[in-house]
Amino acid sequence: MAIVDLRQLSAHQLEPLLQEEARYWREELRWDYHNSIEVIRRFVDARSLAGAAVIEDGHIAGYTFYVIEEHKGLIGGLYVGLRFPQAEMAKLLLGDVLSTLRAIPQVFRIEAQLMPFGCPLDPALAFHGFRISMRNFMMLELEPSHDGDSAEAPPIGAFSRGNGPGAGLVLEHWDQRHMNASARLIQLAYANHVDGEINDQYRSESGALKFLKNIVVLPGCGQFYPEASFVLHAPHTGELAGIVLTSTVAPGVAHTTQICVIPGYQGHGLGSRLLTASIDALVAHRYTALSLTVTASNRQAARLYEQFGFRTVKNFAAGVWQAE
Predict the structure, then answer these.
(1) β-strand 59-69 against 72-80: which pairing, if any?
(2) CA neighbours within 13 Å on the CB side: how many for 278?
(3) What is the residue-wise DSSP string for 251-290?
(4) Mean per-residue pLDDT for 84-101?
(5) How far apart are CA 124 and CA 95, in angstroms?
(6) CA–CA distance from 69 to each of 19, 94, 112, 308 (Å)?
(7) For every residue of 205-238, which 3-state class applies, written as one string?
(8) What 3-state DSSP class applies to 19?
(9) Fewer CB atoms < 10 Å away: N or C end of the chain?
């Protein structure tokens, strides 16, 4: 068994492993991973993807890669083939890249959210000193409209009625002009929240803006789907009370990449209203499934999704290492 720098390999050498990984994304999560694999191929062949691979009896058994963003390292993926000792090799791969990242002076934080196939990865993260938060990958089967036609899309520009903080809010489709206001909303919504501990981009407006651009502008999480992405705001103002953002991750399959409500409006049904609008739009466009992820300790959010009919299909670890 040998550990080599990922930049010593070609995409052709990694291809069997990449195809096996893509198959498990499709079969277990209904996620078309081939666009992500194409990005990995391109950077591997350019010798610009930092990471490591493990070789066993002449075969590439597993790989991992990372990127550096200012003060932190982000482990972007880790996969070990199912016919190899996964737990052992995952621990070795993590140890190799972590020793490199921890030696870089400006890196004092390392984040990892790794989807496991075959064996859990949280023991390997915990072994290397990560704080672990378990997350749930949840799936909702979307039912077609009863009359056989497309469902009716949610009314846009409609005011919510009644009393309470949500009264009078306007529902609109997402638009690029909402980018900065959404970044402010995310920063406020995740202050003192477990997800802000997992992803430090949520802690600042500039970080939240990078997160949004990765979702909306870049193919960081599928293909952004504005038809099922909405904002709630007070009339005659650009300040937002809540957002839901949605991407397409496979034909007929969508993923909620972000849903949040500003403090002061939370607990008054705005999250339900946003999620309902997104689901109605997806059904109207004949989507068959919607997935999302939620931190397991965020029981209020998890219960909301369960009430909508989401079921957990996979658990995975979010790990954070912080320099002392």
Answers:
(1) antiparallel
(2) 34
(3) TTEEEEEEEEE-TTTTTSSHHHHHHHHHHHHHHHTT--EE
(4) 96
(5) 9
(6) 28, 18, 13, 36
(7) HHHHHHHHHHHHCCCECEEECHHHCEEEECCCCC
(8) helix
(9) C
- Do 93 and 64 contact (CB within 8 A), yes or no? yes
| Token duo for residue 255 | 């993923």
* Nearest CA-CA partner of 78 in 139, 136, 128: 128
In this structure, the chain runs to a length of: 324
- Tokens at 65, concatenated: 């890669």
Contact 259, 273 (CB under 8 A): no
* Amino acid at site 287: Y
Q: Are 53 and 14 in contact (CB under 8 A)?
A: yes
Calculate the alpha carbon distances from 263 to 29, 236, 271 in Å.
Answer: 32, 20, 12
Cα 53 to its chain centre, rounded Å, is 24
222-276 pLDDT, tens per residue?
899 999 999 999 887 778 999 999 999 999 999 999 999 998 888 888 999 999 9
Please report the pLDDT score of residue 148 as a whole number: 47
CATH numbers and ranges of domains, the chain: 2-129 (3.40.630.30), 139-314 (3.40.630.30)
11-29 and 34-45 helices, crossing angle to 10°: 160
